[in-house]
Amino acid sequence: MKFGSKVWLIRGSYFIPPGTPGYRRIVRGTLIGARKNHVRVRLDQDDPSATIGYCLRKGDIGWWGKSAVSPRES
């Protein structure tokens, strides 16, 4: 993946009951950086199911493991 690529970001946990905040979900983002096994992603949409208050609004930027990110079609 190249910087600027549109990606799917997997967030949350399967251990949380479906339909409750924090449950596993997929959020759109843009890849803007990388370091070793981590990638930096800017959210392209709000994530109202976020529970820890980290990267929950469109435009927020955060670091995730590469395994939490996959490419998406534009």
Summarize the structure in short:
The chain is mainly beta and 74 residues long. It has strands at 6-11, 25-35, 38-43, 61-65, 69-71.
Folded structure, characterized:
The protein has 74 residues and is mainly beta. It has one domain. Helix content is 0%, strand content 42%. It is built from no helices and 5 strands. It has strands spanning 6-11, 25-35, 38-43, 61-65, 69-71. The chain has a 5-stranded antiparallel sheet with strand order 4-3-2-1-5, with no helix packed on it. The chain is globular and about 35 Å long. The model has no long low-confidence stretch (mean pLDDT 92).
The total of helices stands at: 0
Gap from first CA to last CA: 13 Å
Number of strands: 5
Number of domains: 1
Residue fraction in strands: 35-45%
Average per-residue pLDDT, rounded, comes to 92
Strand-and-helix sequence, N→C? EEEEE
Main beta-sheet strand count, sense and barrel state: 5 strands, antiparallel
Helix content: under 10%
Query: Rough shape?
Result: globular
Main sheet: strand order: 4-3-2-1-5
Q: Give the helix/strand class.
A: mainly beta
Report low-confidence residues grouped into runs of 5 or more.
none
Give Rg in angstroms.
12 Å
